[in-house]
Amino acid sequence: xxxxxDVRITAWPEKPATLEHTFKLEKPCPVSxxxxxxxxxxxxxxxxxxxxxxxxxxxxxxxxxxPVCLSICEPICVxxxxxxxxxxFDNPFSTIRVRGRSRLFNCNQQHQPEPExxxxxxxxxxxxxxxxxxxxxxxxxxxxxxxxxxxxxxxGEPEDQVKLAFPREGMRIAFPNPVSNIExxxxxxxxxRLDFNVYSNSTLINQxxxxxxxxxxxxxxxENDVTAIEIRGGDNEAxxxxxxxxxxxxxxxxxxxxxxxxx
Length: 263
What we know:
By secondary structure, the protein is mainly beta. It has no helices and 16 strands.
């Protein structure tokens, strides 16, 4: 059985795509024309030498293409399912089956996906006792020591849960894209003052301090478009328990295909 993998197209071709519509009927697609509120007013002028004969049943032909404007109220989904055959010297070599769905939106509506709330902790893939002296890439975020090493530890609340202990010189949390509505859950069992620097790219947009003494506390950061946070203090007995944030999803439409491995 062929193995399937997801392939996402991240850029559209420069030229407009061609979308063809076919109908199962062996005759033109029926079209209804109606006028809202009041009937349309039509004025006919004819040459006396050539009388005009008008019937209720008419065939209309246009000398030039007639522009048609479609207003998309809801996303339109276009499904595709086809097979590409490859032959070498007239001998079948392999086949590739392409299946997918294209979603079309009203361009003027500037459709924006809903922001996504994400929460991560360190209990999934990290074990206690690890020492990290460089950037830790974890669940899409970067955790960078500003002094000595970062350690994974189960000390403090919540009990028996792996946390990220940072040195008194601090730790930097870097986000891959601008985020907002940030909540940091932190415990501290030494010097109670922790200092926070909040950045949007290279600009410092907020600076504040929180007192956390022999307990665990949630620190909220309400700035928008945050790309990094620095935490300092704690005398080597402070730990980051979890990070929650709202991520902006950047999308120019959704065009996804499943491509089967050649057989």
